[in-house]
Amino acid sequence: MRRNRPVVYSDGSGFGKSCYRPYAYAPKSRRCYVLHDWQGHHQTNAVGALFHGKLFAVGLFDCSIDRRIFDAWVERILIPELPQNSVVVMGNATFHKGRASALLKEKGHTVLWLPPYSPDLNQIEKKRAWIKGVRNRLRITDVDWLFRMYIDK
């Protein structure tokens, strides 16, 4: 195995159409009931990669990510932007294990699978948390604009 290969972290995350609402109001000593599920529906799913702390190859999808969409993202967006001979670190989501792995290997890259339930080992998780923090702090509702303005080019 060759040393000094570029290590690229990959993952996805969902962004609800509205900002997170951790608090609500109700009359004193009365329980507050939610009339609308702000987080559960109509979300944009972002899939991207991280290299040297910079997010790149971001794909935004207004649908659930499945194997077909993930494979297309790897083939059309990720692979053209990957440094040569990269080690691509991925979680164990079922849809990661389709054609994506074979496509990466065909292009001279290696896939490194993380152990199950170990998001703390994927450095892209910190970037995702930062992006969601910016969004909540500034109450940004347009996910496309969020990624255009706050992601490293």
TrEMBL record:
<protein>
    <submittedName>
        <fullName>Transposase</fullName>
    </submittedName>
</protein>
<dbReference type="Pfam" id="PF13358">
    <property type="entry name" value="DDE_3"/>
</dbReference>
<feature type="domain" description="Tc1-like transposase DDE">
    <location>
        <begin position="6"/>
        <end position="135"/>
    </location>
</feature>
<dbReference type="InterPro" id="IPR038717">
    <property type="entry name" value="Tc1-like_DDE_dom"/>
</dbReference>
<dbReference type="InterPro" id="IPR036397">
    <property type="entry name" value="RNaseH_sf"/>
</dbReference>
